[in-house]
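[INFO] parsing input record for Phenylalanyl-tRNA synthetase, beta subunit
[DEBUG] input buffer:
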Amino acid sequence: MIFTYNKQYVGDVLMIIVKDSKGGKLSSERKGRVARVFLQENNETVAWNIFEVSELIALEGVGQVSLTDEQIAVLNSELAKEGFQESLENDSNPKFVVGEIVEMVPHPDSDHLNICQVKVADDKIIQIVAGAPNATLGLKTIVALPGAMMPNGSLIFPGKLRGEKSFGMMCAPRELALPNAPQKRGIIELASHTTVGEAFDAKKHWQG
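[DEBUG] output buffer:
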């Protein structure tokens, strides 16, 4: 789930994105301060909007925000009070982490894409389709995992590129809005000693 909040420009509304609607037709229902957004074709929930949310919990930050388990419990109580059967789940794992390309093969249907196996934790390897010209075997970079919100507001969900599954994105400095980022294609190149799975920290991982 992706939690976003921007009181200045959106209002006192916590927006919760559950899944990618993939352009499907949407409807919504509102009960009290809670609105559920769902796909018309199958009634599947894709998002929640919780209005006047600051009356329920205290939020810090702008854009993608993190919530504590205690705050999630308060919001779930509000959903239950309004008669909704579903509940919110908290995922406190970092969404931008250090990854290492451990395998890379050319995409069978593209002359510039590669299918990369990227290690994002000691026990986890994910597939990412990427077109970065500097992607090489053994390179360590910053990976945006499903559930990440980029600085420009775009969301990272599992998907396909030219028919091949992709479960994240290896990031360029400009995509992370880093200071003095080169305005050209190419993912971040980290030192070989950088720890795989470490949460992204601009002060530590970027010397632009």
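[INFO] Residues 57 and 110 are 48 Å apart (CA to CA).
[INFO] shutting down worker
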